[in-house]
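Might you be able to check the backbone structure tokens below? Thank you kindly.
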Amino acid sequence: MGREGDMAGVRSILRKVWDIDVDAILELDDDSFITNNQPSHQSPSYPTQHLLFTLAHVFGSNNELPAALRIIDYISRKYSIEIDDETWAQLFEWTFVLSTPRYKGRKSDGAQLGQLPLASVENLWNTMTSEPYNVKPTMPMYNRRIRNLWKRQMLDPMLEAMRAGKKLHNQQVKRSRAMAKDLPEEISMDGASELNPLSLFPTSLTSARHHEMELQQLYGYRDFLMVSRWVRLLMAGTRWGGSGEATLRWQRIGAPNAVAEFWHFRPREGFAYRIATGRIQFQTFTVMITS
């Protein structure tokens, strides 16, 4: 139903199966509950974290994210169900999608349906990473936040988030290297002669760990590409500094420091940024200054 846009049907199922009246919940105060017959904890229909994730996806994909946040929070508090990381990731993804500015040239009806302010991403980030939720952000979460901060031209928070994402990437690299270092000893102890890294169903403990090691390495490569993308955004155009002294401070101090800090993640084909007197261009092994 959700994929077909039948939100009336979704609301009807929630009301009939779980006695959840979406419209009534949206009119409640934050700390209020609707008195109804709650199912037993042993009932197959008792709400679970899977229901929360499904609601985040269904309402988010149908441009009703504010409703998703209210309903999930309501069910979580009423039934004492923890909102898991997968549900938060789904909510954060749809917040990013629905806050992204849409093309002004769109002529179809409903072009602005469900449009959220750009600041919605940062608001949800602050909510989920603080008490009582304390969500630990993932690299895809950092990626969406940084892209949102770039659109809002918020340099300092963007740099802070880039440093946190870089630290998370470094932890991922250490993890995958530790797994790769330990693997040969396991192979010799296990007596395994052949491993099939392409198999989705490892046949031994050693091959399962080899499979996990390669997966972690793929995550590390993905994270590296994300940080490289952030560096491209950071250096793109003349977005930072505004005018006057702030611009000169970014060009003379901020940009060079950022280049040095994220040099390992620089675009290998080269990149450039503008200064008051011209343009500084970085090639693979050289620096060119043109005016």
Observations:
- Residues 188-195 have pLDDT under 50 and may be disordered.
- The beta strands are 271-275, 278-282, 287-290.
- The longest helix spans residues 155-190.
